[in-house]
Amino acid sequence: MNWEQLKMKSLEDITAWAETQSWCLAMSECAQDAEWHSEGDVWTHTKMVLDQLFELEEWPSLSNHEQIVLIFTALFHDVAKPLTTEVDSETGRVRSPKHAVKGEHVARKVLRELECDLATREEIARLVRYHGRPAFLLEREEPAHEVVRLSWLVNNKLLYLFALADTRGRDTESMSRPEENLYFWKMMAQESNCYTQPFSFANDHARFLFSQQQKPNLHYVPHEDYSCTVTLMVGLPGSGKDTWLSRHRHDFPVVSLDDIRDELDVDPTDNQGQVAQLARERCRELLRAGTSFAFNATNTMKLTRTRWVDLFADYNARIEIVFLEPKFDHILRQNKSRSKVVPDRVIHRLAEKCEPPTWLECHQLIVTDGQSHQA
Question: Per the database record, which ranges form the HD domain (predicted)?
Fold first, then answer.
């Protein structure tokens, strides 16, 4: 069954499908902390959350797309608890640290295998990652900043509605964080005009600085006067980064890690220190000259991208990120036509760890599946 077929099914059919999957079987065997989840295992809780979605007052007014997104967010929100659950040897309490972070990757992998469209997949994956945030809003030093930041990562309305269903989808009401905590999220998002759309910053640079600074100012209006533009490519081997550059940035010089490896005769499995050092030197030369250019590498991990983004920002460059992800079978076929073929197992491993870029990392984001793009 693929995504187009599955999303048309009833909740009962979707649940029945899930119960044939290994990740769901693991949830049904995963215990939870009895004081927080007296209903029992993770799958029991998940089914209760799914039921609670349909009880939401707002449910009938949601679009079909919004309903599908919430159903699959519920399905996957605790999918990584079996991978993260541990029992405290002294207290006997059950914990699942970072299950939401790992759950994002599991959800993305399952949805990719179902051939879910890129935009919907990322919408669900990020709701899985941030599904617990509204309950902890009042513990944040700057609650308004939390709501604004998340508005550029998820839809705050859907995040709030899911948090309601998640809170209600358990037996131990006395141990749940009060729903009033969740209403604060809704109220703050509405007051900041970012409940149903991203917060409106003064300009692109204001948004970029907000995401980069330790103590940002929401209403700062920076002057946009960039030294140059850097196009940072993101994509798995075989995703078509070279082709995209030749079509859309053909007049930009390119700093390519693959080209530097060839120049230095360094294999991708060798130590990459020398390659990265030379790439940084060439980037600095172009940045100092105020020359716009493209930086071409896989860049699929946020930590890796951040190092390069920080370098470009130091020279006051306008940073655009281009993320390419065609259908996975197309990536594997295209990889085999490369001069240096990357083993399929490596591409699968990179895909499982991939963290697609967001608007908080750059001034401009272009996302394309090879057929269409959104910017």
Answer: 42-136
